[in-house]
Amino acid sequence: MAVRPVRIYGDPVLRQKSAPVTEFDDSLRALVADMFDTMAAYNGVGLAANQVGVAQRVFVVDVPQEEGPNERFAVINPVLEKREGHEKGEEGCLSMPGIVEDVVRAESLWLKGFDEYGKPFERKVSGYLARAIQHEADHVDGVLFTDRLSIVTRQLLRKKLDELIRGELPPGYHPAKGPKGPKGEGASS
Ligand code: NI
């Protein structure tokens, strides 16, 4: 297991539509294990495979709950259905350090996919977990959360985004520690 470097905005792999996983083998499980390590090292609540340079339909989440342990699991070949409601909330992205904005997402949805052993599952998710799932499912399609913002907001972010493209990371950014701040609302994924 190992921490892999997170790709930063401007890296073309983040815009790639990732390919479905067809082999649920040891190399997939090694990727998932590395993604859990990487998400923890960067203090993230979610991470998609293309954020570590692998354009496969895989993501992991580690989302705090109001009570009990975190929701921490991998999703392979995700399908999101039956989106319901709308909710605005803060999001950040490990691939876009220094940018936090409100994004409107469905409040709940039905998540279908496979675990890293190829076992199919489906479940309803809501609230902050549903937000993280939608953010990660966008990643595997090459969509970034800033794509979901208004044109005006995106124009206001232009300078910061251009800095990321040039490899200029925000002050205090540590590659192995991610942006900053506690997990939870506004955390990055
Ligand atoms: Ni992200």
TrEMBL record:
Transmembrane segments: none annotated. It catalyses: N-terminal N-formyl-L-methionyl-[peptide] + H2O = N-terminal L-methionyl-[peptide] + formate. Fe cation binds at C93, H135, H139. Pfam families: Pep_deformylase. InterPro entries: Peptide_deformylase, Peptide_deformylase_sf. GO terms for biological process: translation. GO terms for molecular function: metal ion binding; peptide deformylase activity. Belongs to the polypeptide deformylase family. This is Peptide deformylase. It comes from Eiseniibacteriota bacterium. The gene is def.
